[in-house]
């Protein structure tokens, strides 16, 4: 009964409202013009005061919509300009009503009559503003040259949005009409954080011209409100050296300067300090001289100082008893098994300064149990053990420089380069020691050149590059040219250094008419060229055009590698589509004419010739390039993974070989269960190269995570591949990567809450992945020392908190999976699945930390890496 009574009352109220509105409409279209102004004011008052749910049309609008044309006729008949504007306001509001208003929407009547009216848009609420914004965007597309009145209306709308918590709406509208430069004048202290966060998150979804414009606007706002650290992060994204230097000069806060130095140093981004700057701590941060000290402190805190042997990682006692002699090589001292143990020993104990194989008494005996290039890699692991410790690492390596064995000497030279990776020492020991051996040949030259590349990665130093360019110019064979090109690419990564690019291109063009043009080392030369363009986008077009003079398949392979580097981490959809066409369209080479007098080549020569001229390698390069471009953007990575799944099922053999490597690049140090399952299936493939690539990829996916499920799977794989030496070597290598730095290091190039991609880390990942296109040359040949390029990507996955004097500070933090809060109302939680820890601690990829104490303020926008905390005043 009560519900029926309420319903009857509502019907009566509606009838009264309808009668009242009908009476007012009659007055509007009546013959007495004096009544119209009062009538229009009453109508506007009724419409404004009506309340209803968000999902239904207000009743006054609903009942007035059939009279829409009546109001338009009345507007035409009104002669008083003021009354005419009042009537236009009512028509504009009625035009957004769906009942009978579809034609009005198509004609943009809401916008047109708004421009003819009083323009008091704040009277009609958010829904009316949204309708205006939608029609403005459509109108802008039809008439790109706007009128002054329309520009003025846009300003009023943006001002309304910014004053009524609809900043995101304002940003979208201005981006649609390409007038984002209007926004800054409406930003204040209460809205800048929300607006800047939203705009910076939109960067990944627009082209690079629009992205640069957005980043510059956001950076200006951060500088305006003295958010120097956030401004620096965006300036690094933009790769703008002038802007970053300006930010450093503008900031006067000591703690903020030091925090910015830590972020720039993690990126190895060059910063020019003022000559009068006498802050020794700031210089020390840029030199990374405290890296080894901080890492040792982390190791002591986590109690992982004790060295581990390869057997501790392999856990062969868990494997079947009958398999152990065959797997371990207890009855047969396998050179390949010893090489695998050397790599595992180096990667597991990286940065800890001690192990149970090489650094102990009699370590030289272990090195001599390897063969040729195996001795070189085993010696170079000494550099891994003393990673970042220049003072303590050179002494144990130096004694191997005086041996008569060239391979051991080459390994010592490479080890010196590894020790100095990411460290800037005042004495430049790497340059002083390695430059003396650049006149050598064979492995000594390779060790010295590649060591220089790793020691000065990302520095773009002219004195180092001048030495390496001479090696490129005087290279006697294609292998030396390849290693020298890679070293030049590492030193000048992302700098577009003209001298390096010109020299490598010249040597490439000179080699195209020789036998070297068919060598697999040619792709490394192209990769070295590509590293110079890392992240530089369309600047690479000139070099791409130069490569047109080459024949297939090298032309397409080299062009794919250049695009891979130039657009790495950008998520550029157009380039990805272009690469997908390369994958689907296999290259058909002309059939060589048969000669009756020619001698028949041996089966070995046939296999080598097929490998060198196989057009499928171009498809493999395109597959890896797709993944490299999609890195860092979650939506793009997920879509890329689905595409790679189809490639693996239906693609050619070379495509299937590259698919595991591409998946690994998308999920570096992120051992998600579905990814592990996919790669495990590929690891059991009948093709040796597909299987080896997948096993190697498992190591990259689990790098530094100590993932228990992956560790068990790799032990089972060791048993499965007990009679396959190539796959078994890869299993051991993957086990070493999984326990990288005893679980304290990562290979992931994304840092600062995944906002920045370290180009040096990406370069360190791409070299081993490209070398794995042909696994046999890496495993069976002497190219396995290229795997030490991982050193450029290795970095502690720590959260280390320091006070304002850079002294370690232990605080409580909450850690959980990061949550995207862009555009969400209020103050939403930024993490989920919270656990409480005390710093220093380890952070997995995708995790985020928050302070759990009120005693300190953080200087960095996110707790990631090395963070400075400021004590709150009492």
Automatic annotation (TrEMBL):
Positions of the UniProt region annotated as Disordered: 591-612
Gene Ontology molecular function terms on file: enzyme regulator activity
Superkingdom of this protein's organism: Eukaryota
InterPro entries named among the record's database cross-references: 26S_Psome_Rpn1 (IPR016643), ARM-like (IPR011989), ARM-type_fold (IPR016024), RPN1_C (IPR041433), RPN1_N (IPR040892)
Subunit record text: Component of the 19S proteasome regulatory particle complex. The 26S proteasome consists of a 20S core particle (CP) and two 19S regulatory subunits (RP).
UniProt record similarity statement: Belongs to the proteasome subunit S2 family.
Protein name: 26S proteasome non-ATPase regulatory subunit 2
Annotated organism of origin: Pyrocoelia pectoralis
Organism lineage: Eukaryota, Metazoa, Ecdysozoa, Arthropoda, Hexapoda
